Amino acid sequence: MAMSSLTILTLLALCHSSIAFRKFPEGFTFGVATAAHQIEGAWNVSGKSENVWDRLSHSRPEMIADGTNGDIACDSYNRYMEDVEELTYLGVDFYRFSLSWARILPTGRLDVVNPDGIRYYNDLLDALAENNIEPLVTLFHWDLPQALQDLGGWANPKMIHYFRDYADLCFKEFGTKIKSWITFNEPYEICEDAYGDEKKAPAVDSHGVGCYLCSDTLLKAHAEAYHLYNETYRPVQNGRIMISINSIWYEPSDPESAEQVALAEVANQFKFGWFAHPIFTSDGGYPSVMVDNVARQSAAEGLLKSRLEQFDAYWIQRIKGTSDFLGINHYTTHLITGAGVDPIAKSPSWLKDIGAVTTMEVGGDSASEWLRVVPTGFANLLRWCKSSYNDPPIYITENGFSDYGTLLDYGRIKYFNDYLNEILNVIYDDGVKVLGYTAWTLMDNFEWRAGFSERFGLYYVNITDPARPRKPKLSAEYFKELCATRELPKDPRFFEPSFFRTECRCFFLILIVWYVSE
Ligand SMILES: *[C@@H]1O[C@H](CO)[C@@H](O)[C@H](O)[C@H]1NC(C)=O
Ligand SMILES: *[C@@H]1O[C@H](CO)[C@@H](O)[C@H](O)[C@H]1NC(C)=O
Ligand SMILES: *[C@@H]1O[C@H](CO)[C@@H](O)[C@H](O)[C@H]1NC(C)=O
Signal sequence span per UniProt (predicted)? Predict the structure, then answer.
């Protein structure tokens, strides 16, 4: 019996819908992100003082993979109009960038305000406004003035006041032009990588101790900045303010293993819950499993007190609820293989306190050892955030992929496409309130200890050319189409040529069904 044209049409429609044709919801916004130290350069001119990354990359260049530094970076201090042109070309709704504390306040404190620093950010904000690009501005993206580090940095409780003062000045100077603020970018990286280890500047490496002193200060500083904004500035400036928490999402390597499932939950509480639980739960304070584990380990080490000091009732209350949205930076998923001390854990340390063994043996590769491509992990993280934190409104404030700097960056496009598709899945299938997406990053830039060896940009930057020319990669064209159409681009030019792409498979499926039915 001949297959009716109706059946063929139905099959076509089914195939079509299986390739994720859903649009992002009304009001969903797209942007790209950068950070001051990674792009600005001009490290020692126009009144800017030294920050902890200047200090590390100059005094210990062997700590940076390719021996580079942020002295010039993308030269955005001088070429910010090129940045704005790129943003305009991409058609983004917003641009996430950070303010350099050492450029605005060279001593870190309010004693000296650098007029050139204020002027620079006003010029950038004005250029964005002229092009209808909303600023999303991070107060602290890792580049602490060295003068404050010399006083102990985030291990010094006085930082609560210095940060509040700095935030106050920024709200006052820029607040009429900025409607969306982020206090801290990735507190985990600051506290664990920079104070509990030496993976980030200032490389304090006070493992198991400094990391928890830092989180105590940082969460209080965040809360103070939030309350200042909420009470003094919001009534007149009408903006919103949040924190961006980063995640490596942990999953059990064997989903059937109850032990691994339980340990993955512990690891997620240590990683994400460390900073999210005090702010986004109704109980507040650190996750109880974290409190228990560190207390138990500390006792076993013969210490009189836990290395993780709990917040008192005042601070639990003061920190709770201090974020208008949950900002999530997400890149990757790692696995938990069992209980015990991770072979790479220092003693004592945050990692040892978890009590689980982790592995990166999962998903596809990138140029960064830690960055494994596991799109489904993103969906699992988002569903977990919905259920753990009472269904918060979420902004993805970073997501991206590293390679070595190719213009035909199919790997990056596939990463964006697959991760964005998971966002669509959780929005439509699970009702997770994801409101916006930020790609990391506008252009190749100084990737911290990886220097320029790992590249995350939508634009290629030639860092040996003094003019720092930027060239759109294929992923820039992909992102431009995404911003314009609000759905995942389907143009075959964005995808590595492959015969067995989904559309081809669908076509052959229809042919076979037709042939059989003949
Ligand atoms: C600024 O740093 C550069 C190196 O990046 C150096 O050559 C220059 O002399 C410094 N300028 C000042 C004013 O210190
Ligand atoms: C923010 O301010 C509003 C209005 O005064 C108040 O109702 C709310 O509780 C404040 N938020 C927090 C977390 O304190
Ligand atoms: C980068 O710039 C340098 C200096 O202008 C030039 O020699 C080199 O060919 C450029 N590299 C690329 C990939 O464009």
Answer: 1-20
